[in-house]
Amino acid sequence: MDSALTLFVAILAAAMFFAPAKGWNYGTATFYGGSDGSGTMGGACGYGNLYQAGYGTNTAALSSVLFNDGAACGQCYLIMCDSNASPWCKGGAAVTITATNLCPPNWAQPSNRGGWCNPPRPHFDMAQPAWERIGVYKAGIIPVLYQQVTCWREGGIRITIGGSTFFQLVRFSNVAGSGSIRSVSVKGTKTGWIALNRNWGANWQCNSALVGQELSFQVTSTGGQTLYINGVVPEWWQFGMVFPSNYNFYY
């Protein structure tokens, strides 16, 4: 380990003895995806093109302790470099990111020497454009203070229908408020309300035949707000289509 990394680990370890200000938590952050963020598209939440999903490049892959098996997909975090623990911070700067991916553990590396996403570490592998708003590129990794915050979006929730005739995967993006979804039900013109199960990331699964039916959704955020989005998907929908709504969460 080079001298700069040795110094960083020592400073970070010392800083952890002191409690952060109320509402803030200690973590670390690296970056990936290139200077234009193009390498961050896709990811374990399943959003695909992050611009089309409403998230852009202010995004991050979360370590598993934060990712929570996909339940954190879409959540927002305010992150600032901890200038008390590192000389590589951009003073006074902060950035709000959206969770769009998983940073998996690297069991071949110790958690303080390369295994930054190993449990139980809270770590953000941020899109490079977002990371460079708070840290100096040369550092590579910085200590941060973070807290979950309300997500603000332009427009309503976007609903994407995937799958096949007897198997639908419904993805919700551009989600405001708490940013993430606790539960989903769907109602076709020929069905009652059907509860969906989380399949992976931000994708919810339905095993009923819904092709050719107008679809309505009951969606509850992790903040506890429930929306009824009636008739948002017309009966002529096809797999792969995206349907914007006029509804979004406040919390």
UniProtKB/TrEMBL annotation:
Gene3D superfamilies: Expansin, cellulose-binding-like domain (2.60.40.760), RlpA-like domain (2.40.40.10). Keywords: Cell wall, Cell wall biogenesis/degradation, Glycoprotein, Membrane, Secreted, Signal. Causes loosening and extension of plant cell walls by disrupting non-covalent bonding between cellulose microfibrils and matrix glucans. No enzymatic activity has been found. InterPro entries: Expan_Lol_pI (IPR007118), Expansin (IPR002963), Expansin/allergen_DPBB_dom (IPR007112), Expansin_CBD (IPR007117), Expansin_CBD_sf (IPR036749), RlpA-like_DPBB (IPR009009), RlpA-like_sf (IPR036908). Its main location: secreted. CDD domains: DPBB_EXPA_N. It is found in: Secreted, Cell wall; Membrane. The lineage of its organism: Eukaryota, Viridiplantae, Streptophyta, Embryophyta, Tracheophyta. Residues 1-23 form the signal peptide. GO terms for cellular component: extracellular region; membrane. Residues 42-156 form the Expansin-like EG45 domain. GO terms for biological process: plant-type cell wall organization. It is a peripheral membrane protein. Residues 166-245 form the Expansin-like CBD domain. It comes from Dichanthelium oligosanthes. PANTHER family: EXPANSIN-A15. Belongs to the expansin family. Expansin A subfamily. It comes from the Eukaryota. This is Expansin.
